[in-house]
Design brief:
Helix content is about 35%, strand content about 20%. The chain is α/β, with parallel strands linked by helices. It has a 7-stranded mixed beta sheet with strand order 5-2-1-6-7-11-10, sandwiched between helices. It has a two-stranded antiparallel ribbon with strand order 3-4. It has a two-stranded parallel sheet with strand order 8-9. α1 runs parallel beside α5 and α5 runs antiparallel to α6. The mean pLDDT is about 100.
């Protein structure tokens, strides 16, 4: 069983969070929606409340395969300001676990120095936050164990890319066809 954690901070972008959750669960991943705050209910940037499966301090992340950061503002800034999340991501990166971020959230990785020498993308206008990265304009960019994507409109290809990395191209293609994406 592939295990995934996606982190919600107040002001997250709802589509960028829930689309990968939905697609990865369809593929068979055990996805845990994690609030970085003390409350399970987190309001997105469009005031949509989402109930997380757990709060950060309840989790043991040792067996997780993939960590995802959705974008949105002020959600991205709230993720960036969370010391315990930054420690977890740095440790996961050192262990070669998969990391993914979409929209403004790749700037969290940039701020941490995780993108040095890597290809990456983000929401237009956030490029300065990709410290040390080679900026690309593709919808989804994977370099090594880090995947970045551009925004709401790229949430489906982002999710499908993560499925391919965890389960293979065949499973990603199966999910793509089942949701009638690209037909």
């Amino acid at each position: 069983m592939k295990k995934v954690s996606i982190f919600l901070a107040s002001g997250f972008e709802e589509v960028e969070a829930l689309t990968p959750v939905d697609l990865l669960r369809r593929a068979g991943a055990q996805v845990t929606i994690v609030s970085i705050g003390e409350e399970r209910t987190v309001k997105g940037s469009h005031e949509i409340p989402v109930t997380a499966d757990a709060v950060f301090d309840e989790m043991d992340f040792a067996d997780q395969d993939l960590f995802i950061l959705p974008g949105g503002q002020p959600g991205t800034n709230n993720l960036k300001a969370c010391g315990k999340l930054r420690e977890l991501l740095a440790d996961a990166n050192e262990k070669g676990k998969l990391l993914a971020a979409i929209c403004a959230a790749p700037t969290v990785f940039g701020d941490m120095g995780l993108l040095k020498g890597k290809k990456a993308t983000c929401y237009p206008g956030c490029e300065d936050g990709l410290t040390g990265a080679e900026y690309r304009t593709e919808r989804v960019v994977t370099d090594g164990t880090i995947t970045t994507s551009r925004g709401v409109g790229t949430a489906i290809p982002f999710g499908l890319s993560l499925i391919e990395q965890l389960f293979g191209k065949e499973k990603s293609e199966e999910i793509r066809e089942s949701i009638i994406y690209g037909h």
